Amino acid sequence: xxxxxxxxxxxxxxxxxxxxxxxxxxxxxxxxxxxxxxxxxxxxxxxxxxxxxxxxxxxxxxxxxxxxxxxxxxxxxxxxxxxxxxxxxxxxxxxxxxxx
Amino acid sequence: xxxxxxxxxxxxxxxxxxxxxxxxxxxxxxxxxxxxxxxxxxxxxxxxxxxxxxxxxxxxxxxxxxxxxxxxxxxxxxxxxxxxxxxxxxxxxxxxxxxxxxxxxxxxxxxxxxxxxxxxxxxxxxxxxxxxxxxxxxxxxxxxxxxxxxxxxxxxxxxxxxxxxxxxxxxxxxxxxxxxxxxxxxxxxxxxxxxxxxxxxxxxxxxxxxxxxxxxxxxxxxxxxxxxxxxxxxxxxxxxxxxxxxxxxxxxxxxxxxxxxxxxxxxxxxxxxxxxxxxxxxxxxxxxxxxxxxxxxxxxxxxxxxxxxxxxxxxxxxxxxxxxxxxxxxx
Lengths: 100, 331
Hints:
- The structure holds two protein chains of two kinds.
- Chain A has helices spanning 6-13, 17-33, 42-54, 60-73, 75-85, 89-99.
- The longest helix of chain A is centred in the first third of the chain and has 17 residues, at 17-33.
- The termini of chain A are far apart.
- Chain A is mostly helical.
- Chain A has one domain.
- In chain A, helix 1 packs across helix 4 (60-73), helix 1 packs antiparallel against helix 6 (89-99) and helix 5 (75-85) runs antiparallel to helix 6.
- Chain B has 14 helices and eleven strands.
- The mean pLDDT of chain B is 96.
- Chain B has helices at residues 14-26, 43-53, 71-84, 98-104, 111-126, 162-171, 182-198, 220-237, 240-245, 250-261, 265-270, 274-280, 286-297, 314-330, and strands spanning 3-8, 31-34, 58-61, 91-93, 131-134, 139-143, 155-159, 174-177, 207-216, 282-284, 303-310.
- In chain B, helix 6 (162-171) crosses helix 7 and helix 8 packs across helix 12.
- Classes of the chains: A mainly alpha, B alpha/beta.
- At the A-B interface, helix 2 and helix 3 of A face helix 1 of B.
């Protein structure tokens, strides 16, 4: 399945490569522990699984998929982590805009 | 060499279970078992989705029962799944959890006979011919599929009692033993051997599987805490003879039973003692788990299943098992 994550790919480009691993790990936790799982559109769920199967969540596409899925289910946690822990306020702002 | 399996309870959205399955396959697990309870997501829908996103892991229900799901439907489901994941499918069949079955209004009588009948029907129908079978519980007359199944599918029997264990040794390709302690495992393997001998088979013909309650974390107290809820249910469901075998406090066990019955999970889980965790789970750091698995392997098990809860964080625990447990036994 081809994932259409154009907006989020642009957002990922704003994230320094050295921070992507930590971010990916935290986002996976948010996603897998989220109780709002029904909020994830089925197309996004397939996209998430395809990426799990073929790649990682640390590269550009993988992180874009993960960011979009997590922003849908846990927008507050995602943006707060980006702002407070990762010091990526601009990324958080872009996600808030994308989710709105 | 011992195989490693993993059990998932499909109580969350399908994509989470499938994610863990993909991760498990990538991380070196050999087998994947999906539990079958009516109150969770459907086992075959979950297995189908899982089969489509994995390539080599062996998968099957762990375990289904013949009371709620008629053996013909079980055979149909697995024969179909075997087309989707050729050669990767196994059946796990047991007599079912009496509490869960009771809530469905299904009477689970003649439990041993029901399992024997179900497996006989399963094997016969997979031959692709018209089946006539008259058992103590199930009977079929001229039953056949309108398609040709790919062939036989290995049968694992979930067993705890002596008769079921011996029967599993006699007619099963594998046995799923719900136990985590050498005392229980040694007893189980002894019973299985009786059935194996009766059938003129060798123990090497049977995949003796320890289906454990497992919890791993770098901090042992976190691993134990995660195991407590599962252990509470195991204690509540265990006859006193089993609790006495492990020298466990029967009064505490009664407290847990009562609390669970009243839905007071806080009391139930906090009443679980370290002795109970030791008896009914494999919990601790990777090194602690490795020591306990080593003890179990001496009983003669050939597959080790990490079952619920796996750890406080399933994803991280799978990674930890892959990095520090499986290599300890496979490298």
